[in-house]
Amino acid sequence: MHAKQFVRVASAVVVAALAGCTINGPVREWQDPNEIVKWDEADVVLPTTMPVEADLIEFDVRRRGQGSFFVDGAHIEIGKDGVTRLPLVTRSTRGAVSVTYEGFRCATGENRLYAIAVEGEWSAPKVNPWRPVGNSSFEPKSVLMQDFLCNGTTPLQARDVIQKLRFPPTDWR
After folding, report:
1. Structural domain count, the chain
2. What is the pTM of this model?
3. Mean pLDDT score across all residues of the chain
């Protein structure tokens, strides 16, 4: 085979392989594989108040030595876009507190930072892309997403999230 023929054949193979790929994630059984599903993120409205102690629900992360992690149960919202948005509070073992407002997209396993609390007011970051959430029992966002917010690729209702946070299933392994 000559070099030009090889390049044409190799190009055709690559194009054929890429034709089956989609930009928006895996194709579900019920989807037309050639259909590109466009997802539009809803407008984000930040909470008007900061989390209060009475509304915080702690969730267990196996790296206890690095602090405690909480969800503001009063401000959990599941948008029409399928994104669960909520304030997260992290307390270090030395008492430092970090408060963020974040979104979790179960359909893609991603997380996005919308705002950080600075001196009692929300401040939006300049860059806030969607980022993959790993699968680790030592990472708070991973634990939150997989154990409390999502049922596979489907977001749970706020009342179900609160119920699971307050009464987490025990792991009897």
Report:
1. 1
2. 0.76
3. 83
